Amino acid sequence: MGAENAPAVTIKMKPAKGRLLPHVDSYYLFRAGEGELEGPERVDIGHIRFLIRGEGEMTFPDGHVEPLKPIMVAGPGTAAASYRMRGPVLCFGVVLRAIGWKALIGIPAHKVTDHIIDGEKLFCERAPRLLEQLRDMTELDDMIGAIAPQLIMRQEEVKPVPEPHFPFLSRVREWAASEDPTIDALYATIEETSGLGERQVQRLCLEYFGGPPTKLKRKFRAIRAAMQIFQGAPLSDVLGPFSDQSHMINEIKHFTGYTPTSLRGSSDPTLALTLKNEELHFLPDVIPEPVDLRGN
């Protein structure tokens, strides 16, 4: 299907506030008109999505295809996936932070990477009523108002995040935001601040982020480069952490579904919002923020 025949797409996003801020990065409302829509699904920590209208499927990096569900939890990605949807589409989404994955989903992230989980199990007997509420709404603020109490209730149902994990998560955020993160630097800073050894760090990275530190380094490096290129930086300015230009292009394509050239020429409204807006990040943990992870 040519781009000229694709349905019109709009997306509205809002950063999270209040009690859910440590767990939720942002909310979004995605709309598309009649017709078939397809595109890349960039890697991320994880989302809760409500497909209020429309249908479709997701193709994951290994080639397997899963249908979209009315309520779904999209697990962390290991590489860019692709979606195909038939509109009209109305999809309300909740972008989770790593701590939100643990606190709200409660499943080790690496066990559900590159998969869609049936989100109705998340809300149990409340799911039908929640879907009914959302189907009567058209505005993002109203949907946020409907989901926030449900997420707070869900948080109270899941086993609390262990206290020693908070400094670990803070250090990973700072490490991810460094110019050229090294694995040794991650191990050293976490051992110094929380006393966790290499094996514990590896296990917690799998549990919270869906991948080992080596994979996270590649992911964060590619995402940061994609953000800089989309904002107009010349390739020479972002080449430093990569072995050469070919390596950089391949890594960006692997994790975002775009080459540097297609990033700059893209009309994808999701890219425009998440790669240019300082409050809405492509991957929440790439840029650390003054967030109290404990929610105090």
Polypeptide structure, described:
It is a single chain. The chain is α+β, with helices and mostly antiparallel strands and about 300 residues long. The chain is about 40% helix and about 20% strand. It is built from 12 helices and 7 strands. Strands 1, 2, 3, 4, 5, 6 and 7 form a 7-stranded antiparallel β-sheet that branches. Strand 1 (about 10-15) and strand 2 form a beta hairpin. Helix 8 packs across helix 10 (about 245-255). The protein is globular, with a radius of gyration of 19 Å. The protein starts with 8 loop residues before the first strand and ends in a 20-residue tail after the last helix. The mean pLDDT is about 90.
List keywords for this structure.
alpha+beta, 7-stranded antiparallel sheet, 12 helices
Write the layout of secondary structure elements.
Layout: E1 9-15, E2 24-41, E3 47-59, E4 65-67, E5 71-74, E6 81-96, H1 98-105, E7 116-118, H2 120-123, H3 127-135, H4 140-157, H5 165-177, H6 183-194, H7 198-209, H8 213-230, H9 235-238, H10 245-256, H11 260-265, H12 269-276
Antiparallel strand pairs: 1-2, 2-6, 3-4, 3-5, 3-6, 5-7
Helix pairs in contact: 5-6, 8-10, 8-12
Short description, anyone?
The chain has helices at residues 98-105, 120-123, 127-135, 140-157, 165-177, 183-194, 198-209, 213-230, 235-238, 245-256, 260-265, 269-276; strands spanning 9-15, 24-41, 47-59, 65-67, 71-74, 81-96, 116-118. By secondary structure, the protein is an alpha+beta fold.
